[in-house]
Amino acid sequence: MVDSRAEKLADILVDYSTRVRSGDKVSIRGSYVAEPLILALYRRCLERGAYPMIRADLPRAEPLLYRFAEEHQLEYVWETETWMADNLDVSFSIISDSNTRQLSRTDPARQAIRAKARRPLLEKLMQRAAAGDYRWNVTLYPTEAHAMDAEMSLAEYEDFYYGACLVDAADPVAEWRKVADRHRRLVEWMQDRNEVHIEGEGTDLVLEVGGRTFLPADGKENFPDGEIFTGPREDRTRGHITFSFPAIRGGQSVEGIRLEFEGGRVVEATARKNEEFLIKTLDTDPGARVLGELGIGTNYGITQFSGETLLDEKIGGTVHLAVGSSYPESGGVNQSAVHWDMVCDLRKGGRITVDGDVLMEDGRLLV
Prior knowledge:
By secondary structure, the protein is α+β, with helices and mostly antiparallel strands. The chain folds into two domains: 4-165, Thermophilic metalloprotease-like, CATH 3.40.1830.10; 172-365, no CATH class. It contains eleven helices and 19 strands. β18 and β19 form a beta hairpin.
């Protein structure tokens, strides 16, 4: 039986998040386990006169790629993918894992080879999105694997997830527009400010954001959403930060990460678990040791760590940093095949001050 909330989610994603129009070329990608949401999006795109294409994934295929492919195969990029990067109007990417740890034993060096080869695609899509020529959305379909990561039953996880999406509101789009209004006020407060100081347990970090643009994340590119973010100045970050939650990338969970910055670069990196993966990822290319994003979580409907970054970076009262590529629309210029978000919880004794004024205290936004 299809959960009616998936149908409501599809309405929001098509009409609010991406504004699908007649004639749009649309990609819908996700695992076959997300079939109810894939078909709901597909039908709505057809009804609006678009040209949707379903790109269903087989979850067990990716481990085979990293196990058996030679280097030239990892580097190969299909011409069709290049065409899509140049021509798609809209894309939906649905996180829908049946096993979130299936790549946990994969050599990170092989993952880095593939990431480098696909970097031009990422850069093209980010440039087109910044120019307004391409709309994208990343969302999630609840699965048993995601529920297990969050230490919930599937029913509990579905309630948790759809609650964060506000789909049960009488008018979900109106609620997301209220989120957009709150974000607008936060962005206005940040305008023309420069020095961001983050303090917390194991954390004393200074970033500079002067001349950069803070962007409101209110349900367009990510769903659920809830953050404001920018690209910090690439050569000004200094100090250290300890991340509260595991940072997950490519099926690997890295725990207890501590990063030390000088002159904008990571000069020392340690982790309690999977430190080798952390170091190899930071060594992917020169830009991987530079921050591409500073984000402040504002979704207070997400109250706990779930093991899925899409949700965890939005937790109200947290801050997240991404090593690697910047979003061009933020004014950031860092380039890398990596964009890896890591979350620091400030709800117990943390603080963010901006040019000496307190923005967040113990996880509470004071603006």
